Amino acid sequence: QIDAVVIGTPMHFHAPQAIGALAHDLHVLSEVTAGVSIEECRDLVRAARSSGGRYMMAENFTYMKSNVLVRELARAGLFGEVYYGEGAYVHELKALNEATPWRRRWQTGVNGCTYPTHSLGPVLQWFSETRLRGDRVVAVSAVGSGHHYTDPRGDHYEMEDSVTMMCRMASGGLVQIRVDMLSNRPHHMTHYALQGTEGAYESGDGFQAVPKVWLRSRQAEPQWEPLSELEDEFLPDFWKNPPPEALAAGHGGGDYWEVEDFVRSINEESELPIGIDQAMDMTLPGLASQQSLATGSSWVTVPDPRNWT
Description:
Blueprint: E1 4-7, H1 11-23, E2 27-30, H2 38-50, E3 55-57, H3 65-75, E4 82-90, H4 94-99, H5 101-106, H6 117-129, E5 137-144, E6 163-169, E7 174-180, E8 188-196, E9 199-202, E10 212-215, E11 225-226, H7 231-234, H8 237-240, H9 244-248, H10 254-268, H11 276-294, E12 300-301
Parallel strand pairs: 1-2, 2-3, 4-7
Antiparallel strand pairs: 4-8, 5-6, 5-12, 6-7, 8-9, 9-10, 10-11
């Protein structure tokens, strides 16, 4: 007997396989992104709404310790009104495009912010925690840096080397997301920033950077302090005493905690941390960015899956 499936296949299989599992009332934990087109995302939402199974997207970067801690600070209202955020996924993957050809088709073979959820996911949670009804991206405008690299066959990658997606939030705020999987450079996959009326956060850039935060409630004058200084007071218990398995898991423990959350939510019949609506909120802006780039970086409306039938 099968109760649940974990989908860790190439991106273009995620939605069809999830839809197939949900049709049999199986629970689904799916890798990112949730889908590779708006049309199949509609089909996935429809399947999730009508299934006896439950759907969760496995965005592991939302479970990294620093991202969890910032989320708790936002939940406590310590940033005040949040209005600006940043995320960047800079990870040179040209060789991996050849080892896993699906990436050459669905990540660098499409011009857009094709793999945004690692960067957008945590920031979206931070914005949502400061508002009773959450927050979401309502429109995007994307720009690219041009084409400077070719694959081993001499073809330019369809994706521009560095793509930046500006996201207008429902709350009126602004989020900037950069995805760069082609530039020759060391990787930097966990750049984040957050700005509110009462505080700011920066994950830090450069060699051995230290995540830092300023909160007016702790220091009247703007002055950074290490984010780690707030762990004792604000870090959730599950991160204060993690089991060895969590520390050994990939993506800063995120791979462990997302699976534990999925299983716990199913067993307790509680709300899934990244259910179908949240999965769409993290996926659809990147799909809309493709249309933006194709139309001269125009602003493109991001559909709200809550209105889909």
